Amino acid sequence: MTxxxxxxxxxxxxxxxxxxxxxxxxIRQHPERFSVSGLGGWTNVARIATLSNEFRPKMIxxxxxxESSLHQALPSDLAKNxxxxxxxxxxxxxxxxxSIVVAGISGSAGLKPIFSALSSGxxxxxxxxxxxxxxxxxLKEVARKSNAVLLPVDSEHNAVFxxxxxxxxxxxSQSFGVTQGPDRxxxxxxxxxxxxxxxxxxxxxxxxxxxxxxxxxPIWKMGEKITVxxxxxxxxxxxxxEACRLFDLPQHQVDVVVHPQSVIHALVHYLxxxxxxxxxxxDMRIPIAHALSxxxxxxxxxxxxxxxxxxxxxxxAPDLDRFPCLSLARQAAEAGGAMPAVLNAxxxxxxxxxxxxxxxxxxxxxxxxxxxxxFLPKAPINLDxxxxxxxxxxxxxxxxxxxxFQS
Length: 407
Ligand SMILES: NC(=O)c1ccc[n+]([C@@H]2O[C@H](COP(=O)([O-])OP(=O)(O)OC[C@H]3O[C@@H](n4cnc5c(N)ncnc54)[C@H](OP(=O)(O)O)[C@@H]3O)[C@@H](O)[C@H]2O)c1
Hints:
Elements: E1 8-13, H1 18-29, E2 34-40, H2 45-55, E3 59-62, H3 67-73, H4 76-79, E4 82-84, H5 85-93, E5 100-103, H6 111-119, E6 123-126, H7 129-145, E7 149-152, H8 155-162, H9 166-173, E8 186-193, H10 203-206, H11 211-214, H12 224-232, H13 234-247, E9 254-258, E10 264-270, E11 275-279, H14 285-293, H15 325-335, H16 339-355, H17 363-374, H18 383-405
Parallel strand pairs: 1-2, 1-5, 2-3, 3-4, 5-6, 6-7, 8-9
Antiparallel strand pairs: 8-10, 10-11
Helix pairs in contact: 5-6, 6-7, 7-13, 7-16, 12-16, 13-15, 15-16, 16-17, 16-18, 17-18
The chain binds NADP nicotinamide-adenine-dinucleotide phosphate (NAP).
């Protein structure tokens, strides 16, 4: 039996969400390896209360608005551990007791906590892709300065990571990417996309698709924002930028291929013609278990992959006419500077408007494109400037939304 001293203490940000719950499921299976020192939720009081009663963390995050409800829902010995609001989430990200921080918050709300965790030299397991899109270079710089470790948990990026050599993995986890030094052995990487619920929907029908249809993902069960992003293919666009950041590759060395079975999550193409692929069930517990126990392996709880039953694997090029979000993301990656942050902010506003049934599915890329055309700020050089670009892009997106889509 492993002694308790070797246990890894984990703070889970976004514990009440899809990534958070998958993380806790892996941790639950390995009490000898992991313990939960912190749990962060936001609006879901019932769920964070249940999880807190189970894991008894030393810090419990929740929004300011829900603080008193959570206080009432918890016994007094746990209620004293509540750290409310954004400041509380940042304290959680820097929690001394935690060596690992799982970044499972959705959207740009995760930026400051990730920044805090990296500044504190934590091992940060990144599922929350939007902050990497907004300012990945800045986050990597902070990580390098404080010797923080970055491990990709987004399934495609974790898949790429698993196809790398030990030295390349060290480069990525230390925020240098794969091409640092003399190693130029990778010619490109390919990220796969399931294609989402509208893979076969004719262009003419996309204007009528509903929120309920967009939220019905054929493969993955995830939070609402990422599920809509998967339907527009913006998720793959964000992942393309995320891959450029994590692996230090230009956008033209990152390919996207539609693979409806979602068995192969990514491929790494090497100079000698070898292509390494990562196969796994579409179950987030697999990349999470990999990153939590890295460089060891533990059982994730996922069912074993039966390659006979998945012998029919299809691949096709994405349809950029029906799914222009992917092209917009590639444009933003190519432009660099502030543009990925502008793209991300406009997308968050557009997805929120779609989820609130204020705009149609096909208006999402139009709104983003208009914001990108209108707003070209200078490249942000610190966190405050990134947050300022994000706020300004949101304001412009709201104006465009009112003027163009709701008049
Ligand atoms: N789900 C997946 O399979 C998957 C796969 C790869 C990557 N990702 C990425 O992982 C991230 C999380 O995705 P998800 O699907 O797990 O999202 P989700 O189910 O919507 O969960 C989001 C989590 O963030 C919390 N949260 C929301 N706003 C917050 C704030 N301002 N401060 C602190 N916490 C806040 C939520 O708390 P409440 O629910 O309590 O409000 C919830 O715990 C996203 O960036 C996504 O792109 C997800």
